[in-house]
Design brief:
278 residues; two-stranded antiparallel ribbon; 2 strands; flat
Amino acid sequence: ITEVKLMKVLKRIILYTLLALGALIMVFPFFWMLLSSVKTAAEVNTMPPTFWPAEPVFENYTFAFSKAPFGIYFVNSVIVTVACVATTMFTTILAAFAFSRLKFPGRDLLFSLTLSMMMVPFEMLIITNYSTIVKMGLIDTLAALIIPFTTSIFYTYILRNFFLSVPDSLYYSARVDGAGNWTYLWRIMVPIAKPALVTIGLLNAITCWNSFLWSVLVTNSTEVRTLPFGLYAFMTSSGIRYERLMAAATIVVVPMIILFIFCRKSIITGVSRGGLKG
């Protein structure tokens, strides 16, 4: 019995050690970014690099705000993120319900074909999406940043699996009581699927907030650009001031880090429950 307990303790020690090392590897780049943002130019370029700044310099943040209009970028990022999350949630709920509860010919085949589209990277769709936005006359508008991100196959997959985990008897009971598919979806399924919906919303918000490549292609003026584009202002032909770039990166990243810290349990719960069945 003593040997068994000793083995269990040893396994826990190894497991926690590996988890701690993994967490350290994941957190260290963000920690280094924060430290670099309060260093001087000499300290950032010192070899070997210094870990702690001799004296924190917060002028980098002042320069960052003066170099790029982060106030405008922040408002645009909030608008785009909220709009993308709202529309994606709506389309995802409808698609997931159709693929999980509605019976129609070729449903599973259609879902499999749709799921196979996840293997196509977004970069391969840029030309098609860009041509569509140009034809719609939406270049250099906030709508151009929103429309391509109003649906998601991955989020539909997560929510569909969650809907499939709900017993069929609940659906049939609701139909017997006179509830139609629309009523059943919004009055019963959506409240039950709250953990999965919270996860989808959070993951989508993080993705939209950090979108960079698409915003570079479809925006030309400061009035419609988002926060990730603000980092572009610190890359010049004469070189990069990394301490100032790190300060700007901190401004962009910190809101999502805070959101993830407070909502990480909801993300893990929703993803795990959404992958139980299907």
